Amino acid sequence: MKAFSLQGEWAFILGSSSGFGMAIAKELASRGMNIFGVHFDRKSAMEQINKDIEEMKANGVAVEFFNMNAADEEKRKETIPKMKEKIGDKPIRTIVHSLAFGSLKTYFGDTEKDELIQAQIEMTINVMANSLVYWTQDLRRAGLVGQGTRIFGMTSAGGHRVWQSYGAVSAAKAALESHIRQIALELAPHGVRANSICAGVTDTPALRKIPGNEKMIEIATQRNPSGRLTTPEDVAQAIAVLSLPEADWITGNVIHADGGEGIVG
């Protein structure tokens, strides 16, 4: 059987400037995929991001990043025609939703100021879950989602477990997994596959923002039967493999890329 190459295919990554998103972009670029990325960063972060972009381009691929709020409808509708102009009529092969922006307040606090408010909960779920649906809808209308497209939502154990101050993010992860299942169901007849990727605890900038992250890292290191934390590169390699045609019958799942962390009680 002839081996399928990802060479010349396109990937689109929401949340591409660091952590999982950047690792996935680099891995796919190393396999010959062209990369679109959406990120939302201050000027101070751009020096490193530009270095990473040049590193990817050294693989002989096209790389274009858009610095914008991925949850902004107007920006989304401005960006997709630019992508369409580059790609033409061929669907994007790999779409990854790896947005990590939300409130880490608790539901209940000593004062009302310490507690999550409606706007913060809704923003967190909108950015970290609902935005995947809106991007997928608009990309499909533009002809950029179709036969062979693979869609991945980055979830975590927070989708089914609890951690202090992680309530709004947990709700978003659970919603993201639900959206992935629905996308898998509705777009299966069109040759689109969708899965949630549940990474193990990974030392990323997003994790470091969670109160108590040091304890989380300690517990995960002790319980993981592989004897270490998950790395962004572990997850990136899994997504590359799942982007191949041989994984065509895998859809609608929560796939654990965690070295066995999730099986330990």
Overview in brief:
The chain has 265 residues and is of the alpha/beta class. The protein is built from eight helices and seven strands, in the order βαβαβαβαβαβαααβ.
Detailed description of the structure:
Helices cover 42% and strands 14% of the residues. With 265 residues, the protein is α/β, with parallel strands linked by helices. It has one domain: NAD(P)-binding Rossmann-like Domain (Rossmann fold, 3-Layer(aba) Sandwich). The protein has helices at residues 19-30, 46-57, 73-87, 118-141, 167-187, 205-208, 213-223, 232-242, and strands at residues 10-14, 34-39, 63-67, 94-97, 150-155, 193-199, 254-257. It has a 7-stranded parallel beta sheet, sandwiched between helices. The mean pLDDT is 93. It has 8 helices and 7 strands.
Write down the CATH topology.
Answer: Rossmann fold
CATH classification class: Alpha Beta
What's the average pLDDT?
93
As a percent range, the share of strand residues is 5-15%
Strand order of the largest sheet: 3-2-1-4-5-6-7
Number of helices: 8
CATH architecture annotation: 3-Layer(aba) Sandwich
Chain-wise SSE layout:
Blueprint: E1 10-14, H1 19-30, E2 34-39, H2 46-57, E3 63-67, H3 73-87, E4 94-97, H4 118-141, E5 150-155, H5 167-187, E6 193-199, H6 205-208, H7 213-223, H8 232-242, E7 254-257
Parallel strand pairs: 1-2, 1-4, 2-3, 4-5, 5-6, 6-7
Overview features:
265 residues; alpha/beta; Rossmann fold; seven-stranded parallel β-sheet; 8 helices; 42% helix; 14% strand; globular
